[in-house]
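pasting for ref
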Amino acid sequence: MAWVESLQKAIDFMEDHLLEDMTMEKIAQQANSSQFHFQRTFSILTDITVGEYVRRRRLTLAAQDLIRTNEKIIDLALKYGYDSPEAFSKAFRRQHGITPTDARKNMGKLKSYNRLVIQVSLKGAEPMQYKIVEKESFQVVGVKESFSWENGENLIGIPKMWEKVHQEGIVDTLVKVNDASLKGILGVCHAPLSNGKINYWVAAASESDVPNGFENLTIPASKWSVFEVHGAMPDAMQNAWKKIHSEWFPSSGYVHAGTPDLEVYTDDNPYSPDCYSEIWIPVK
């Protein structure tokens, strides 16, 4: 359970430094994790980004200060990281639905986001089907786009990317060049980049020449934990990721190897409850 304890340590660090400037690097260090993998794990387990969690907590505490103290709104704005009363008021209203002035007058309801405590289910009532696979390095060909993980840009951008590659016939081309041992269309998460973003690929394993307009990426030799995913997209895939991070990793003894993850999509109907797909995670 050291993995869970490390994650909680990072959350406690955020709580202890809510009124300070925190870098993602320092937060991730508390969990003995890379910035990318900490942000990804946090988002999967909580359904919000690290940045959104910090914003919600700060504005929750700001609301309490408005009610309990006589601090000026301009001082509270600076205290909670806002450059101006206008920026503070806008963020405050977005979360609470009322202005700071109204909150001070007890005019309306406030929304409180409490301190987060990670609780992991290890009951194992629903078993996970997985296998460990050793695989040599291989090439994938496809198209890629860059997304920010920190602000949840990926949650919007990646689904749009999938729509685009289907509409433009890119997936049809990938099906034709998928001549390697790993069959299926791949979602490849390759991170992190120097600018803090990730590269996400829609690709296929291929030993053929790279088609015009496509790029290639070498997936390194790895030990993979391969999970079966059953059910309609996208819920089945999202639920599987959450279960892997909340149940399997804490009890498995494995940690992420830091190389690209793969989502493997078969030619099954993605909207069918019988759809079969896989998640490949490099482990050590």
